[in-house]
Write a structure and sequence with these properties.
The chain contains 17 helices and 7 strands. The protein is α/β, with parallel strands linked by helices and about 350 residues long. A 5-stranded parallel sheet has the order 2-5-1-6-7, sandwiched between helices. The protein has a two-stranded antiparallel sheet with strand order 3-4.
Length: about 350
């Protein structure tokens, strides 16, 4: 079975990946789509070789945005001994996903490549289902669950690719999410690109042209060598720009998920998860696997922790402007939750 966790960046999805990884029936795949970047969602029938290149061939722009220096808690490759690749320029699927699954990620990567290259010419969804189904079987898990930061913008694409999948939409209050996104290098790059490319008719958040789907992103990735990457990644963007980006993500995500049958989507809020972890994890386990084993609940419920709101510590005028900029996105989330509840 296939399941997908959708959310913006910095909404608590890494925590959700951790608790999913602890469930005995779930295979947790972290950041597969996001690290594949412009090659994540190729259209039409593609060869096994092309599909595997998207997961195994690093790019300069992708490596600059995500590596053990810029995001050490996520990009774990290189912490192991005798690594085959440079941790700062390694195959995308090896940078995050596989080190979370094995202390011998190179061996798992080699095996995955052998499996992937045996597939027939087919669409990307079938390639992913075959490859991750085989990985789940190898790991003794029944359901694979992919989670990528920012994947909410690809909700319509993912529903098309995985028509039988279950979806978890993870949300966090806009103000604190925006403050965290402003500090995260990959989110800074996304905001920078979105703001500058929209006037040219290239919308990073558009349902049919989002990052990872439209062919233009492969050309932009190739042009990454001439971009001022360091200055973009190391500089905090304007808070209003990040808030506008987040709100558009939520609006687009809610619109796409309105087409998913209610029985195949679960809304999970970060605030509820940290406030009442046992109850929320029980919902999550039942939704994804049909079970929430007591031992898993006990161990997983110990992970979520409440944190003080960073937004509450802002000067009153700054906080008011931030909340106002996040209001459209917050309204989109509320409306979606209301639809799910039948209200």
């Amino acid at each position: 079975m296939t399941a997908l966790v959708l959310g913006s960046a910095r909404c608590g999805s890494t925590l959700v990946s951790r608790v999913i990884r602890m469930h005995p029936e779930l295979l947790s795949l972290s950041e597969v789509f996001s690290t594949a970047g412009p090659h994540a969602f190729p259209q039409g029938q593609i060869s096994a070789a092309r599909f595997w290149r998207g997961l195994s061939r690093p790019t300069r722009l992708g490596a600059a945005m995500g590596n053990p220096t810029r995001a050490p808690d996520e990009f774990l490759y290189g912490a192991q001994s005798d690594c085959r690749f440079d941790p700062h320029f390694c195959p995308p699927i090896l940078s995050v996903a596989l080190p979370h699954l094995s202390d011998r990620p190179d061996a798992l990567f080699h095996w995955l490549g052998q499996v992937a290259l045996q597939a027939p010419r087919q669409d990307a969804g079938a390639h992913y289902r075959d490859l991750f189904g085989a990985l789940a079987q190898r790991m003794g898990r029944r359901v694979w669950v992919e989670r990528s930061g920012g994947s909410v913008v690809a909700a319509a694409t993912l529903q098309e690719m995985f028509p039988q999948a279950r979806f978890v939409w993870l949300t966090r209050n806009g103000a604190d999410t925006v403050l965290s996104m402003r500090d995260y290098p990959a989110a800074r790059m996304a905001v920078w690109m979105w703001k500058r490319l929209r006037p040219l008719g290239l919308d990073l958040l558009a349902p049919g042209g989002h990052y990872g789907r439209a062919g233009v992103w492969r050309w932009l990735q190739a042009a990454g060598g001439v971009m001022p990457k360091a200055s973009i990644l190391d500089r905090r963007p304007d808070l209003a720009d990040v808030a506008a980006f987040w709100s558009h993500m939520m609006i687009r995500g809610a619109q796409a998920m309105a087409a998913i049958p209610p029985g195949r989507i679960l809304h999970l809020s970060y605030e509820s998860l940290t406030r009442d972890p046992a109850a929320q994890l029980a919902r999550l386990g039942d939704f994804l696997a049909g079970s929430a084993p007591e031992d898993w609940l006990r161990r997983a419920a110990a992970l979520p922790r409440t944190r003080p709101s960073r937004a509450d510590a802002l000067p009153a005028n700054t906080r008011a402007r931030l909340l106002d900029a996040c209001a459209p996105g917050e309204a989109a989330v509320r409306d979606h939750v209301r639809r799910l509840a039948g209200g």
